[in-house]
């Protein structure tokens, strides 16, 4: 029995040793590549050094994780593996791990049998695990080749590529013979210090063509091989700016808010033109997602408005808030109150999300009041943005909204019974005070509200011919619990015989045109559509009365709201107007126009004058004429240099809007001037490039009338000849 346990433990140790060796080789393959990178370039290239250290550290972590997993291998797993591998063990290797005293007779016999079979099936030096070693050895071989290839690479090939190339300036006008002995630039550093509102650190430019923030300070530091007589920086072909000499280095600092073209001049030798573009500071952006620009809060809805907006800026927001204006009253008695409301902004942020709910009741608003608000934001510089004005109005059920009131006359129909709104207010108050009232008082107040609802229902029922309470409600006069029974009729009630015995009498003929209040279906006070709406409102009142009288005011409230809305629709349908005489102005769109400040359609008085515009780019036009003469074989003189210089300044001014577009033309113009000064033949390619650029600067010519040429066919010409001959005859 002990020999069998030793055999299982030996198999476990061999497995851990073999598997651990494979894991070690795999980690070694990965770490070998990282070590080769670190050995070759060390810390000269930070990116490669970090990658190499991360690779080696990952290989070590992988090895530690694999070793911890191997330590979890138990003898039970070894026994299960032997059962799967050797059928002669009869799936009973697990019995060797159990004490003999705990086994029955049959299990003991099987344990002895497995012990003898185990010694026979597995010799002392035979391995029972067949591990896949080929992939690991292949990966290790590839890693060795990669490491050897990295070691064979020149150390400066990648290190130099990752370093920024030093800045260099071109001097195209300097002849090769003079360049060897002239003063030259050994090193130039351009430092850009962004303005404070960007909250960015100073950085080095990687090329002479600059793109800087608005208000940034640019510093040029130039080192020369020998002291220079003059070292200047020329901006926009203007006055040269001398560089200050300090310990053999020349320095110049300047703040830029507008784009520019510049070049360096050393002892009269001019470099190529370079651009300095300005990145403008954008104003903050405000996007209001909720609510809509005009929002109406209906009666019964929560008097709250949720504002959701996104604020952003390119460099950061400094402050943001909301301005709300509350309008109370109407007509000439309207009053405004403005408040500044915080939206939770704090600190310096590039993006800020607004999610704020405003309680209109806390602002002192009630039914019929209006709220105008807008969101405003400031950035770190001088940028300011405000959103459009948004409108929130609480519906006022005491006023029927109609813009026709401004242009129409008297309303002959009075406003009928507005007490349904008061019933709703009293019901809401009862629900709010329910917890503080005793049961008897609560039921009494609810029953009183039900009585008020009944009286209002009866008053509105008169307009439908429902003169008696017996004919009102869903049952139509049928007592509760007696649905399905036929109505009892008596003699003389009009149901057992025709109302008029003589159908040709005057009363029978006039009967369809009479208004009878004692017959509900014959009531003709309203049109059929309005009558249907009013019947629906009475049905909602009936449902509300039922629940108020049974002490369920919460359930009655939705029916009261619906009844009020239907009554307003009926009231609007029954309004009658008489149009005024005279001017009928168009209706005002008050929610869209109030507080917008839109004056686009207001045209101020203007005085029209005809002034002849000055000729634009006069020197450019003269230079184009000079170019035409040169293309035709004309001769140039030294006086032409002044003309080209003046035309070049005009080109430089126009090039500020598009700095990169005219650089080649300005450089070619410099070459033409150098050719004239050296009395050399002019560069033909330069002439074409400069001519093309100057033509682009000129404004388009005004169209002039021209005679239209007509091409006619032989048939048309013959037809015209025949017509002319016939006319002569």
From TrEMBL:
UniProt superkingdom = Bacteria
Stretches for region Disordered: 471-494, 700-729
List, alphabetically, the InterPro entries matched.
CHP02302_TM
Which spans are transmembrane here? 21-41, 47-67, 137-159
The residue stretches assigned to a coiled coil in this entry are none
Signal sequence, start to end: none
Q: Which UniProt keywords apply?
A: Membrane, Transmembrane, Transmembrane helix
Q: Name one Pfam family in it.
A: DUF4175
Under which name does UniProt file this protein? DUF4175 domain-containing protein
Q: Which organism is it from?
A: Pontibacter virosus
